[in-house]
Amino acid sequence: MEEIEKDIIFYDESKGGVTFSGGEPLMQPDFLTEMLQSCKEKDIHTAVETCGLVKSEDLARIEPYVDLFLYDLKIIDGAKHRQLAGASNRTILMNLRELSQSHDEIIIRFPLIPGINDEGEDVLQIRTFISSLRNVQEIHILPYHKGGIEKYRRLGKEYRLPGIQPPSDQKLSQIEDIFRRVGLRVKIGG
C-alpha cells in the first residue's frame, strides 16, 4: 500500500486508480481482498482483470471493494472452449452472469484471434450472451498481435499460433458493428 499511496495525487488528477491483473489476481484471494479493502479505505478507484475461472465465493468476497471488473470472455461454445483453452467455460459464464446481477461496472474484454473466434457464429454467441447480461454495456475487442512470439522464443516455449495474422481493419470494423447493433459501447484495444 505504501507504493500505491505514493501515486494518490496522480489518481486524483487523472481519475485513475489501481488495476489488479496478472495472471489471475483471484489466485491469491486473501491478498487481493486485503489490498482492495485498503484501497477502498483510501478512496482509491479499483479495477480487477479476471478470466472468471475462479471460485464464485472468492469473486463475491472481493466484489464490494471493486469499482470496475475487466472480464475476459474468449468463446461461448463449451466444447470449443475446452478444446482451445484446456478448460470448461461453465464457471466463467456462471460467474459473469452472477456478477452482472449485482455489479454495475463490468467491461468485457474479447481477445479476437483470426481463425479461432472471429467468425460469425462465435462472435454472435458472445454478442447474444453479453446482451443477456444485466449490467454490461461495454466491450473491448483485443485484436490478436504477434507480440508474444518473441517472448515465447526467449522462454524456450513453442508458440502454437505461428501462422496467424492480426485481423484486418475491415474485419475489426465488421465485428465492432455486430456489437454496436445491440447498443454496446465498443473499444478496439484495451
Nutshell version of this structure?
By secondary structure, the protein is an alpha/beta fold.
Structure write-up:
- The longest helix has 13 residues, at 29-41.
- It is globular and about 45 Å long.
- The two termini are 25 Å apart.
- It has a six-stranded parallel β-sheet.
- The protein is an alpha/beta fold and 190 residues long.
- It has nine helices and six strands, in the order ααβαβαβααβαβααβ.
- The model has no long low-confidence stretch (mean pLDDT 94).
- It has helices spanning 2-5, 8-14, 29-41, 56-62, 78-85, 90-102, 120-131, 147-154, 169-180; strands at 17-20, 45-50, 68-72, 106-112, 136-143, 185-188.
- It has one domain: Aldolase class I (TIM Barrel).
- Helix 3 (29-41) links the parallel strand 1 (17-20) and strand 2 (45-50).
Task: Describe the structure using short key phrases.
44% helix; 18% strand; six-stranded parallel β-sheet; single chain; TIM Barrel; 6 strands; alpha/beta; 190 residues
**What general outline do the C-alpha atoms trace?**
globular
CATH superfamily: Aldolase class I
Radius of gyration: 18 Å
Could you give a short account of the major beta sheet?
6 strands, parallel
Structural class by secondary-structure content? alpha/beta
Beta-strand level of the residues, as a percent range? 15-25%
Instruction: Return the domain count.
Output: 1
Widest sheet, order of strands:
1-2-3-4-5-6
The H-and-E topology, N to C, reads as HHEHEHEHHEHEHHE
